[in-house]
């Protein structure tokens, strides 16, 4: 879930006099969030012209390979007809053969199918947010990466567009089931979810417990929550966050109805938008600018009406009871200590309910921990996968994927 997109989109409401009046209360509350980013932008504008900044963004867009990995494409269809786009990266044949004896020992089947790892991304992101983990695991394990409805290359939610149905996390769980049915019709599964993707995994479990019991052999929850998201303060003073909570859903709905106008506003305030995204996505100051721009590009590609559709679903999300279905399998619970969107306390709460889970709290990491500290996330995933015979024992990723400003892309 990327709260920065919702906040930044709402801050762009002042593109006309009427909208300034309509969103005055929201603007005052949201201004608390934007103040730090705006100060930085103001200083930058003293020394760097708008044209130069635009050129810098274009240069960063082409500076790294981030988001360029592609697999074998496929399409699944949700229960309301929404087209869901996914890609499969197959395992190297020699690796698959070498893993058969270990899978037999673990699963007790004569010739089990390869383990498939299904990655689910967060709010306002896409399957490309798993770039580093995908790069490190290519050929080593069969993986499926998919775009949630209305995100990335998937189609707009038919239920939302045609029938004006509210978007729910339960719907996302059913979407994930449709992807699994199409891309992983047989064999053991490892589920990996970041933020909204982790909530999607929980919703899948709540609605299809037999699938979890019969086929899911391990799960990873990254920067996610099982509920009580309405209590998150996003690093704001109490008065500010309460004001935002009261007005933001209505403001987003109104903005979604004027999408074309708001998108122009987002482009006009690109510098402020980038500052807010950085604050809510990353904790470290030395993040590679190309990585920061990569995250910004994913978020800015999410239309405002999609932001508006999804946002209310998070307050209603509560899948605490569904966590019981994961007690009999290896589970990784990982979060950034400085995550302002889904605070690490939410991951600790998940781990408390899954006492055998491995809890990893990453210092100096924000919400997009898999991009900020990819080597940590990928290494812990590799260890989880090795435990269930999905990758050779002892698989590591070394220093792959460092994203400091002085590092070269892996």
Characterization of this structure:
This protein is an alpha/beta fold and 410 residues long. It folds into two domains: 3-64 and 234-314, no CATH class; 72-229 and 318-387, Alpha/Beta hydrolase fold, catalytic domain (Rossmann fold), CATH 3.40.50. 50% of the residues lie in helices and 11% in strands. It has 18 helices and eight strands. It has helices spanning 3-11, 17-22, 24-47, 50-61, 93-107, 131-137, 158-162, 169-183, 196-207, 209-215, 238-256, 259-268, 270-281, 289-300, 304-316, 344-353, 369-372, 374-387; strands at residues 72-77, 83-89, 116-120, 142-146, 189-194, 216-222, 331-336, 358-362. Strands 1-2-4-3-5-6-7-8 form an eight-stranded mixed β-sheet, with helices on both faces. Helix 1 (3-11) crosses helix 3 (24-47). The longest helix has 24 residues, at 24-47. The two termini are 26 Å apart. The model is unreliable at 7-48 and 398-410 (pLDDT under 50).
């Amino acid at each position: 879930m990327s709260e920065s997109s919702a906040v930044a989109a709402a801050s762009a409401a002042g593109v006309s006099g009427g909208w300034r009046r309509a969103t005055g209360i929201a603007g005052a509350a949201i201004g608390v969030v934007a103040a730090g980013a705006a100060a930085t932008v103001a200083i930058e504008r003293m020394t760097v012209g708008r044209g130069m900044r635009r050129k810098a963004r274009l240069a960063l867009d082409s500076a790294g390979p981030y988001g360029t990995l592609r697999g074998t494409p496929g399409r699944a269809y949700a229960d309301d007809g929404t087209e869901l786009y996914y890609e499969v990266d197959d395992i190297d044949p020699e690796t698959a053969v070498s893993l058969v004896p270990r899978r037999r020992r673990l699963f007790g089947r004569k010739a089990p199918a390869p383990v498939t790892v299904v990655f689910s991304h967060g709010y306002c992101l896409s399957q490309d947010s798993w770039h580093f983990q995908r790069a490190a695991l290519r050929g080593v394990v069969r993986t499926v990466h998919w775009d949630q409805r209305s995100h990335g290359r998937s189609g707009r939610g038919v239920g939302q567009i045609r029938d004006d149905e509210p978007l729910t996390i339960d719907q996302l769980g059913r979407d994930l089931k449709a992807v699994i049915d199409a891309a992983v019709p047989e064999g053991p599964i490892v589920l990996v979810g970041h933020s909204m993707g982790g909530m999607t995994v929980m919703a899948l479990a709540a609605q299809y417990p037999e699938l979890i019991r019969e086929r899911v052999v391990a799960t990873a929850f990254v920067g996610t929550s099982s509920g009580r998201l309405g209590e998150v303060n996003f690093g704001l003073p109490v008065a500010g966050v309460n004001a935002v909570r009261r007005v933001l859903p209505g403001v987003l709905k109104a903005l979604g109805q004027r999408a074309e106008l708001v998108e122009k506003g987002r482009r006009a305030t690109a510098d402020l938008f980038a500052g807010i995204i950085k604050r809510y996505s990353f904790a470290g100051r030395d993040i590679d600018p190309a990585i920061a721009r990569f995250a910004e590009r994913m978020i800015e590609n999410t239309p405002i009406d999609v932001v508006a559709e999804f946002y209310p679903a998070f307050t209603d999300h509560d899948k605490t009871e569904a966590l019981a279905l994961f007690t009999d399998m290896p589970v990784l619970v990982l979060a950034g200590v400085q995550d302002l969107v889904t605070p690490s306390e939410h991951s600790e709460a998940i781990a408390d309910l899954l006492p055998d889970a491995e809890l990893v709290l990453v210092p100096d990491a924000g919400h997009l921990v898999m991009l900020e500290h990819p080597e940590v996330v990928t290494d812990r995933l590799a260890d989880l996968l090795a435990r269930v015979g999905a990758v050779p024992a002892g698989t590591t990723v070394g220093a792959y994927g460092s994203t400091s400003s002085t590092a070269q892309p892996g």
